[in-house]
Design a protein that fits this description.
This protein has helices spanning 20-33, 49-60, 104-114, 118-133, 141-158; strands at 4-10, 40-47, 68-72, 76-78, 84-86, 95-103. Strands 1-2-6-3 form a four-stranded mixed sheet, with helices on both faces. A two-stranded antiparallel ribbon has the order 4-5. A hairpin with a 5-residue loop joins strand 4 and strand 5. It has a single domain (4-158), classed as Collagenase (Catalytic Domain), CATH 3.40.390.30. The protein is built from five helices and six strands; from the N terminus they run βαβαββββααα. The model is unreliable at 75-79 (pLDDT under 50). The two termini are 30 Å apart.
Amino acid sequence: MSTMEIDILFDESFEDCLDEIWLRGIIEAALKAENAGDNIEMSLLITGQERIHQLNKDYRKIDKPTDVLSFAMQDELPSEDGEDFSFIAPPDGIKQLGEVIISFQQAVIQAEQHQHSVKKEVAVLAIHGVLHLLGYDHMEDDEADIMEAREKAILESLWGDLL
């Protein structure tokens, strides 16, 4: 049996900002577009500037709010002695991708800057976060070009359906 478990969480005061079913549809579309498989579990948190600022400071050492953070459950991590180790796959075969965190307030700011809807901005950020969980990065120009092209293709595939 295949399962795609997507937990959608809202910090207090953001519960009524976005529709949970709509958010789940955006994430499912991104995962399907990337052929991520069916046995997947991940979560999405909609929060505000204060919490994302603290997370950005704690985990990235960047002392300011950001729009989206992704915390991937990586296949291999270095141990303290420098050796790599792999997480043991769960017996149910479900792959834990990790968590995407979006600042709703930052999405509102960026939507205004880009002159499009807040829903479109949140969709862009959710897709961006999911791609990070799947191993995409944008530290180098060529990586950024590939990631941006995938984001654009997934977003365009949603026109009419979810946006």
